[in-house]
Amino acid sequence: MNTDAIILTIIFFVLEICDIYLNPANNMLNLIDNYLRRFHERPIIFFLSHFGFIFLSFCLFALSIESIGLAILWALYGFDIIYKLSIYSKFRRGEFNALWIDQMRATPIRPAVRVGISYAICIIFFLCIS
Questions:
Q1: Are 73 and 121 in contact (CB under 8 A)?
Q2: Across-strand partners of 36?
Q3: How many whole angstroms separate alpha carbon 49 and alpha carbon 47?
Q4: What is the 3-state secondary structure (H, E, C) of the chain?
Q5: Measured distance CA(17)–CA(30) in Å, rounded
Q6: CB within 8 Å of 73: residues ≥ 6 apart
Q7: pLDDT tens across 112-127, in order?
Q8: 36-76: pLDDT as tens digits
Q9: Annotated domain spans of the chain
Q10: Nearest to 84 by CA among 39, 19, 21, 17
Q11: Which pTM was predicted?
């Protein structure tokens, strides 16, 4: 087994857990609100708090890991950031109705599920770099 790939995967998992810890939420609306508030207060902190995207950028560009899977993962993380920014702009313009807000409030998010999703992403990350 490639020990460098294991170390990079562990670092990536720790960064994913940091993202979960910094954005605690019990429903989708709280999670979105945390991201929106962070962007509204200090946009640079919003971008710096996307540890996974920064680390994937480091792996792709600084470490020059050539993997199409890693590039796709990097693009998905980038689209996630763009999606959060589009939600922010829609909130600023007041384009969300009460039904959408109620649906987001009713969508529960358990930390164990978020950790499980992060674990699955880390497995994909490991497979892409090993």
A1: yes
A2: none
A3: 5
A4: CCHHHHHHHHHHHHHHHHHHHHCCCCEHHHHHHHHHHHHHHCHHHHHHCCHHHHHHHHHHHHCCCCCHHHHHHHHHHHHHHHHHHHHHHHHHHCCCCHHHHHHHHHCECCHHHHHHHHHHHHHHHHHHHC
A5: 18
A6: 56, 121, 124, 125, 128
A7: 888 999 999 999 999 9
A8: 888 888 888 888 888 999 999 999 999 999 999 999 999 99
A9: 3-129
A10: 39
A11: 0.86
The residue assigned the tokens 């294991």 is 6
Question: Which residue has tokens 């562990």?
Answer: 10
Token pair 């902190």 is at which residue? 45
CB-CB contact of 47 with 84 (8 Å) = no
Distance between CA atoms of residues 41 and 78, nearest Å: 21
88-108 pLDDT per residue, tens: 888 878 887 778 778 888 888
Q: Produce one character per residue of 27-38: b if its CB has 16 or more CB atoms within 10 Å, e if not.
A: ebbebbeebbeb
